[in-house]
Amino acid sequence: MISSQEMLTSTYLKTPKAAGYAGIIFSVLLFAVFVLMRLSVPSDPLERGAWLAGDTSYVALAMNLVPFAGVAFLWFVGVLRDRLGEKEDQFFATVFLGSGVLVLTMLFAAAAAVGAIIIAFHAAPDAVAQSAAFHFGRGLAYAMINVYLVKAAAIFMVTTSTIAIYTHLTPRWLAIGGYFIAFALLFGNYFFDWSILAFPVWVFVVGLSILWHDGLP
Prior knowledge:
The protein is mainly α. It has helices spanning about 5-15, 15-40, 55-85, 90-125, 125-130, 130-165, 170-190, 200-215.
C-alpha cells in the first residue's frame, strides 16, 4: 500500500511546472556563461592569450556556473520526457535525449579546457602563452562551443520542435520558431558571434510557455 504522503510526494516531483522552472534557470545561467565568456575571451581562436594576463574573474565565474546550468538542463529534459508520457516516440526520444547529452558534454568539456588553460597560465605564465598546449586547448574549447555544441543544440531544438508539433507540448508557433532558430544556429554562427545566445533564449521561452499553459503558482 502506498501512503498518502508518498502519493503527494510523487505527484509533486512529477509536476510539469518543474520543466518550466528548470528551463528558465538553465537559460538564464547559460546566457550568463556565454555573455561572460564573450566579454572576457576574444572570439578569435588564433589570438595569443593576452586576456590571460588580465582579470579572469568573469571567466572563472562563468566556469563555476556551468555545472549548475547542466543540472538545470538535465532536469528540464527529464521532466519534458515525463510530461510526454505514453506519447513519447522511441526514435524521437532517443535523438532528443542524445542531442541533449551532447550539448552538456560539449559544454562541460569546453569549460574544463578553459579552466585548465587558466590554471596552467597562473602556474607558469611565460611558458603557457608560448606553448603548443595553450593553442591546442584554446582551439579545442573554441571548436567544442562554436561547432559541436551549436550543432548539437540545433538538433535538440529541431527534435523538440517536431515532438512539440505532434504532441502539443508547446504552442505551434513556438515549435515552428524552433526550426528557424535551429537553422540560424547551424549557419549563422559563422557570421554572428552572438548567435549562440539564441539557444538559451529559446529554452527560456519554452519554459515560460509551459508555466503559462499550466498556470503560474
